[in-house]
Records
---
Amino acid sequence: MSTEVKLSDELAEVHHLLTTVGDYLPVDERPEMERFREAGRKWSGQFPVPDEAVVTQAQGFPGLTVTTPASRADRVLLYFYGGGYNAGEPYIYRGLAARLATAAGAVVHLLDYPRAPENRFPAALDSALAAYKSLLATVGADRIAVGGDSAGGGLTLALLLKLKAEGIALPAAVVPISPWTDMTVSAPSYTELADRDPFVSAAMLQGFAAGYLVDHDPRDPLVSPLFGDLAGLSPIHIEVGTEETMIDDSRRFHEKALAAGNSSELVVVEGAPHMLQLFAGIAPEAAESVERIGSFVRKHIG
């Protein structure tokens, strides 16, 4: 099933840029994942870092800390990058982190969690938990928000379930962006929107899942939060685009979170592809999304 969507000039440019990732792939004999990661670093030149941003090494855990003049030390956003648990890195997200820092008036920490296939489940979750505990030593949970996009969005929600299970104070808010909530990759949208998503395919995610999970059950809530007990979670704000094969992962999690009695907001951006927010310097729709996320964080962490 396919429906034609009229894109603005800016969103059309974002769609085009997402199709150019392959142009940055080096042609040599290195392993495929290493080449894909290098392409991501080169391609990330599309995401300039605002001049006012200050980027330093994070303290207490691996990663980067990003601040702008709007950042307040008592407001913290712990952010997990996307990349299917196999690719991506904090360096690529400096520009988005700076814009989130300004929008939320917060210090943004980009965790450098270990990637698959070298580091399999639960390596990323263990790293996220350790970083969160490190932040709790310096600021209260009521001053912490957690977020991330794609796999990082799924990691955000998996961390919530892990914290709840261990009796650790939950963050004041969570802001998953296009979260990967179901590693079975079985939602109808993967087929229905296959010809409209310029970047993410079911085959891509199945490959990433295999690298992260190996023989682990893809229905484990700590890798697929959709299948978890969602009662008693932090307030949630989800953003996703109409052109994403992953859209059902957001819709279904939102619906289940509401049914479990949580406060959950879902914003569906018309015409938007996966990774929209990284293009906040190009498309007004992306900048508006970042502002909504920042407003939600400010509302819940002071």
---
Amino acid sequence: MNIQRWLKRLSFASMAGMFLILLMGALVTKTESGRGCGDDWPLCNGKFVPAYTIESLIEYSHRFVVGVVGMILLATTILVLLYSHRKDAKWYVGGAMAFTVLQAILGAMAVVWPQSGPVLALHFGFSLLSFAFTLLLYLVYTKFGEAMHRGDGTRLTKGVRIAIWGILIYSYVVVYLGAYVRHSESTGGCIGWPLCNGQVIPELSGATGIVFMHRVAAAVLGIAILVLFLVVRMQAHTDSAIYRATRLSLVLIILQILSGGFVTLAMGYDIYLLASMLHALLISCLFGILCYLGITSLHAAEGKVQAYAAPRLP
């Protein structure tokens, strides 16, 4: 049995599955299908195969996919722990499993007991972290894994490396604020885009204050990534992994901000659901790329680049 091939296949399946869970979770929230199975978990309205309604179909399909992906991730975890000699791979699969369990527990709690907006927002946040860990795990077994393991020869100043991790952590805060907007039912707090209710700075209270805070946070993230790109461009070669990841992050944050405006302008129209799903898709990709950038930057210190030792597999 070619262990290397199975590690790559299962890690890819785990990553793709986590990405699907993210999108399906966003679909559950946007279609208000979270109560589609009543107060029952893991059953749906007391049945293993529930009666057909749109809400129950969406919610139960989400649960089913979480279960299947959970089993795939469990198999991946066992294989990585037993056969992989890459310590980083073990950290990634362990993180993915931990946050998958946490988001499953939060999901079950949200069904059985009513939860507050701040707690519900964590559900998406944990799902995003699960996806990020599985993405990093998959990249270990691709050509990008070398840069994550030893760097690509790029040398960055300490300040830039700190900035990369600061932006990564801050991006998670922005994601949480976006999830809180949805779960606190504040989506309609700002009518219009880029202005909020026709004002540059609206009344900062209630739903309007929540939405406006998310908009400002997203704008600050966009400016931070733009500045980071300009600085990295001066320190890294254009063909380096760090430069390309930073450039892609800039493209994604621009698209993410525009998609946020698209969501606002699409409210009340049939394309609103599509706009919302696009918004969730883009932020997931952006966070994943920032995680890759953060890990790769750890090996871009000033000085001698670490020697690379290829992973040994039986």
